[in-house]
Amino acid sequence: MGICLIVNISGPDTFPALYNSAARLANDLTITPGKKHTEGYYLKGENVVFTYTHPKNLNSKLINSASVAGSFNDWKTDNKNYQLTKKEDNRFELEIPKSRFEKGKTYSFKLVLNGEDWINASGNASNTDGTDDNNLTLKL
User: What InterPro entries has UniProt attached to this entry (predicted)?
Assistant: First the structure.
């Protein structure tokens, strides 16, 4: 699959807008109908593990940092307690004790690359909030 975009403008919002649009288009073209999954985190023992995997066909060297911002940290991208650690070239993770989250409460969140590129949920995500912002959700 190939996607070609020609852009005649450049500004601070150009890269995030193009990245999200291209990623959403690529995801929509490769989506498997009916194959929904929880996205952005998984549970491991007494921890919530936030996770981001950069597509292997994209240059992971462009990702200097990954963080999680959401209703649980006032949507702060620079909060040091919510910075993911690089585990492999294209995979980042952060373990947080479940005890930091109120049981039964729904939290909205997004993964953020390089402190400013907010990643939208894919079409396969089963844990979205249904808003125009297309946030992921966490509920214990």
Answer: Ig-like_fold (IPR013783), Ig_E-set (IPR014756)
Give the integer Cα–Cα distance in Å for 29 and 37: 17
Give kind and range of the element (H or E) at residue 38. Answer: none
CA geometry: angle 69, 90, 70, nearest 5 deg: 5
Residues 80, 41: Cα–Cα separation, whole Å: 18
Q: Is 113 exposed, middle or buried (0-12, 13-18, 19+ CB in 10 A)?
A: buried
Total tally of structural domains belonging to the chain: 1
Q: Cα(22)–Cα(96) distance, rounded to whole angstroms?
A: 31
Q: Which two tokens stand for residue 140?
A: 């214990």
CATH at 74: 2.60.40.10
- Residue of 101, 110, 108 lying closest to 71 (CA atoms): 108
Domain housing 111: 37-139
Helices (H) and strands (E) in the chain, counts: 1, 8
What's the predicted TM-score (pTM) here?
0.79
Identity (one letter) of the amino acid at 2? G
C-alpha to C-alpha distance for 138 and 70, rounded to whole angstroms: 10
